Amino acid sequence: MIFVTGGAGFIGSNFILNWMKNNDESILNIDKLTYAGNLSSLQTVEKNKNYHFSQTDITDHDGIAQLFETFKPRAVLNFAAESHVDRSIHGPSDFIQTNIVGTFTLLDCAKRYWVTLEGEAKINFRFVHVSTDEVYGSLELEDPAFNEKTPYAPNSPYSASKAASDHLVRAYYHTYGLPVITTNCSNNYGPFQFPEKLIPLVIHNALMEKPLPIYGDGANVRDWLYVGDHCDAIVAILLDGRLGETYNIGGENEKRNIQVVDAICEHLDTLRPRANGKSYKELKTFVKDRPGHDKRYAIDATKIKKELDWQPKETFNSGLKRTIEWYLENFLWVDNIVSGEYKTWVVKNYKDKSI
Ligand code: NAD
Ligand code: TYD
Fold first, then answer.
1. Annotated catalytic sites, by residue?
2. Helix, strand, coil % (nearest 5) of the chain?
3. Positive or negative, the Cα torsion across 315, 320, 325, 327?
4. What is the per-residue pLDDT across 73-106, written as a single tens digit (0 to 9) for each?
């Protein structure tokens, strides 16, 4: 069995769905079910005999230790996190708890369990920590892309908490020999992403005829990767990644935010034209910038490509089209989510951005 923490979130649920399609090995999904966790994303596998779920907080030491004792996993994939930069600005405390204390708790329980293993079971155990390129800070337009040797320089409470968790993972390798690997991935997009993040938010707002909020001048650059390609990279790392190493994962798809919004509008103009015959681009609205907004992220993925023969399958255009088609077909999934807490969040985040 493998443990997947945060499996009810965006990337974790995509990972579980992909894994169950291609593997017979069982998964225990360990998720606290915060606002970002949705078991409805996993409806198609919930009755599969290889799928198990435990509603447990990764900061709960006794609860996590009990799961190790009961299920005896051969690997832990740690996706669980508070993941939204804007939320970390409004309320950093949950980020410190889950991302730092939670990762520490998992590491500590994994280590206590791992030292009891023997032979092949001990040699083959893996702790894969899923992290972000945001730990490297912000690039100028002319800077080379982040590689695995780029010094950490996080700028938001989110990225600082992820950086801290990466350091703890590293320390457990060097101090205790726990067989860990860390991944630092660029911005993901695809099915089941919570509509607080740029791409699903713009798709949802466009379909609701609401303004499409663009922070600042829209010139900030992100390096976009289709979520399925990220999941394939994690499988490759679990299989053949070198212990104690970090791997950067990215699509080499650098886009300014304004280009992303325009591309979504163009796809929607074709796939779901507006009743008034105008382009969705007319809904674009420039709003007050995010404080400390990182200018540019870009990933140099040479290491994973060379060592593990990984390549993204989707281009930005093909992945974005697939994603928009998914949101059009799964409007109910989004509709269920954008009630309650989401409404409160939208008011909080955009009220001083004047839309
Ligand atoms: P998400 O916010 O969609 O999902 C996070 C999941 O973790 C949710 O199901 C939530 O319920 C769960 N969770 C939160 N706190 C928990 C706790 N204390 N105990 C147990 N479960 C808890 O996040 P995501 O976008 O799927 O990101 C997954 C991981 O990938 C994160 O570690 C994130 O830092 C990293 N990452 C994300 C991106 C991206 O673009 N989304 C890019 C690179 C790396
Ligand atoms: P986001 O999806 O929040 O990811 P991250 O901050 O982790 O990169 O944002 C992606 C980019 O889009 C980022 O530069 C901020 C910008 N953005 C907007 O312009 N408007 C929005 O409403 C949101 C949510 C993000």
1. 133-134, 158
2. 50, 15, 35
3. positive
4. 999 999 999 999 999 999 999 999 999 999 999 9
Q: From CA 16, how far away is CA 227, in angstroms rounded?
A: 12
User: Is the CB of residue 40 below 6 angstroms from any atom belonging to ligand 1?
Assistant: no
Whose C-alpha lies nearest to ligand 2, atom 20?
214
**Ordered structural domains, the chain, with CATH:** 2-189+224-253+295-313 (3.40.50.720)
**Is 118 in a helix, a strand, or coil?**
coil
Rounded-to-integer distance, Cα 3 and Cα 10, Å: 16
Taking the chain (355 residues) in runs of 10, the rounded mean pLDDT of each run is 98 98 97 95 96 98 98 98 98 98 99 98 98 98 98 98 99 98 98 97 97 98 98 98 98 96 98 98 98 98 98 97 98 86 84 70
Any atom of ligand 1 within 6 Å of the Cβ of 79: yes
Whole-prediction pTM: 0.97
CB under 8 Å to 205, separation ≥6 — which residues?
A: 211, 212, 213, 283
